[in-house]
Amino acid sequence: MPIYAMSTAKILLASCRELNALMRKYWWLGNVEKNRFLALKAWDRICQPKASGGLGVRRCEDMNKALFTKLAWSLATKEQKPWVSCLLNKYFRYDCFLNVSSKSSDSYQWKCILDTRSTILRGSISVAALGNSIDFWHQPWIPWLEYQEFVELMNIGLRNRGYTIKTLADISIGNNWNEEMVLQIFGSEMGNQILAIPRIPSPYQGRMYWKSSPKDTFSVKAAYCVEQCWRFAPVKNIWKWIWERNAFCINNVHVNPSLALAKAEKDFLELQIVPFRKDHEGYNHTNDSMRNGVILVPAIKQVCHVLFTDASWVRGEAGIAAISVNTSSGCWFVNSQKLQVVSALEGELRAILLALNWAVE
Question: pLDDT-derived band of residue 197, with 50, 70 and 90 as boundaries?
């Protein structure tokens, strides 16, 4: 996917569809030479997030818009970049980027950037300092409301009351809320909630944050999810569990398989050398075979496969497992089951039985 080109230029939809077709061919065939192939799954389903049952593949036109949203975010937050200053002075020197109107004389690139503002409005939240840079009516600033709920509150609930408010500075006293005005506009219940919204202290400026990001920072991935969430299937924990690394869990606690394998390897190495006491009855040892009071007996025959068992038991349910280690290749395999047992001892015995049956097979 031509990420650099997509982040600086709006790709024609026909070109994006052609790129999607090439990716689709390569996914099902391994090449792009043939035109006919059997698709076992709809491409739109494959282009779902992994947590929704897809493979996380992204369509080119969607990725292009998400990358352009990054440019719009830089303009909305007025990042200290030369190209941001240039566009700011040319297109919205005295206006807010989120409110500037598109003109017929604007360049195609600028119009494409303006088209992504809806994604920013849906995914961001503004925190006020003095409040003079935050539009009261259009720029989301109430954190518990989704964008659609915010628009309905402003346009249906407040717009027809004749308020002349423009920015949050009009309902503020310095860096604090004007309690009397806020309660008058929003009423007692919501007004008290708004009064509890923190403000950025002086001399800092108001800021915009991305709501769905863990660190409240913008990312192309977060913008992509906000823009495309309408077509995503519901998130299921089973898909998260499948795609997670080290997804071995006991009682919802992650288990490190490397540590478990190292423990199994240690137990296996102990089988290679069998220790006996110094005066073990019936064993003829020499001085060369003694070390620190322990006689080391080499294994008579090299073991090709070693089986280990483990079991856990909680409230009548047992998780049992058998691990097979191939000593020549170093490969290891796990066979696990979940059973209803009456005691931990029965669980351990069932694990041993599982290993014996596996060995016979």
Answer: very high
3-state secondary structure of 318: strand
Please check whether residue 65 is in contact with residue 110, taking contact to mean a CB–CB distance below 8 angstroms: no
- Taking phi first (over 0 means left), then psi (-120 to 50 degrees means alpha), and beta for anything else, what does residue 25 get? alpha
Question: What residue type is 8 in one-letter code?
Answer: T
Which amino acid would we find at residue 270? Answer: E
DSSP reduced 3-state for 338 = strand
Which is nearest to 54 in space by CA: 297, 305, 236?
Answer: 236
Per-residue pLDDT of 63-93, as tens digits, reads: 999 999 999 999 999 999 999 999 988 888 8
CA distance 208 to 139: 10
Cis, bond preceding 82 (omega within 30 deg of 0): no
Query: Which token pair is 86?
Result: 């240039």
Write out pLDDT tens, residues 11-46: 899 999 999 999 999 888 888 888 888 888 899 999
Residue 79, class by beta-carbon neighbours within 10 Å (0-12 exposed, 13-18 middle, 19+ buried)? exposed
Written as six digits, the tokens of 56 are: 């996380």
Q: Does the structure show a pLDDT above 50 at 158?
A: yes
Q: Cβ(227)–Cβ(69) under 8 Å? A: yes
Q: What is the DSSP string of 168-222?
A: GGGGEETTEE-HHHHHHHHHHHHHHHHHTS--PPTTSPPEEEETTSTTS---HHH
Nearest to 226 by CA among 133, 148, 139: 148
C-alpha to C-alpha distance for 101 and 207, rounded to whole angstroms: 22
How far CA 139 is from CA of 3, 152, 164, 209, 290, in Å, comes to: 30, 13, 16, 12, 82
